[in-house]
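Researcher: Structure for this, please.
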Amino acid sequence: MKSVTMFVWNNFINDARVLREAKALAELDYTVTIIAKKELTEMKLKPVEEIEKNIVVNRPLKYELPQFLTSKLKSSILSKHIPNALLMFKMIILGRRYKTDVYHSHDLNTLIQGIASAKLRLKPKKLIYDSHEVQTSRTHYNFNTIYKIEKFLLKFVDEVIVENETRRDYHYDLYKEKPLAIHNYSELYNIDDYETYPLREKYHVADETKIVLYQGGMQEGRGLFKLLESFKDLEGAVLFMIGDGKERNNLISKMKALNLEEKVIFIERVPYADLRKYTKAADIGIQFLENTNFNHYSASSNKLFEYLMAHVPVLGSKLPEIERVIEGERVGLTVEAGNIKALSENLQKLIDDNDLRTHFKENTKAAKYKYNWEMDKTILQDLYEKL
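Model: Predicted structure, token format:
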């Protein structure tokens, strides 16, 4: 059998995008090994496990210096860079151990691992760089530094994948080479095959009260603090926020400061296999990215298409990729990114207008046949067949 080794900079618990790609390659009779990572706080995770037939994840442990030492020395080199470098080295050792036909690096922080595994050998192997984000334009990223690093490392790459056409054009403007655009939409499935998670019963939400849902990472630039502010004067709805991230505790503090305990409920990150049940319970889905950088401006993230698959109308930002789907398919409303007043007014409109929500809901049932992984995965499979 042919084989591929993928690198990811996460624990590969909820990485739906990479799992979809791995499954698509397994269909071509590839054995797929995913080299992920495990933090010291994640010792319960298996170091090696078979996710599905011919898909195995290997999680080398990331070692860190004791917190009492790093807090005293206050050195990012000791607390962050050295542990990361050691983990990268462990990933490279693992990556070179497998008899691999193609290496596949997901995002810039695994590209060095891919290059060291695929190219630093007598008979170099093929290497794919799959960039889920716009690396040169992200929150807290320095454009000049990342541009120089990415431009240099791209010299060793055989093929580049980006998320959509907007990002493909941006990549071309920077590097004068046009990558492959693979949207990586949600899998096509019938939401009626899944039970609805009993959010109403468990959290005592009245039948006439609408459930507004945000699911995903709780990071800067997602519009989540503004989403909380928009709920101050909203009537007839409860907001559920599912997920985790650096801003989760700050969001909870903000919720309490706004006295929204009766209107906002936080739920820990849900395993991807169970997430559809929660999504199905929602009346309205939120995708309110802020236009803080090109990475957000050009995003067409998974949650938008997960809402469509669950037949949930969406309120999203008026950004090109998001607006193209929501307005083009008439599955919800869009508002100017970051505009709290517009967000609140349009949310209230969706909450109050049952006929409008029903109209959008019906449109999702057709849209999901246009925006799904079955329509997209053949691009990835064709790329591998070519390689």
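Researcher: Any notable elements?
Model: The chain has two domains: 2-184+373-386, 191-367. The radius of gyration is 22 Å.
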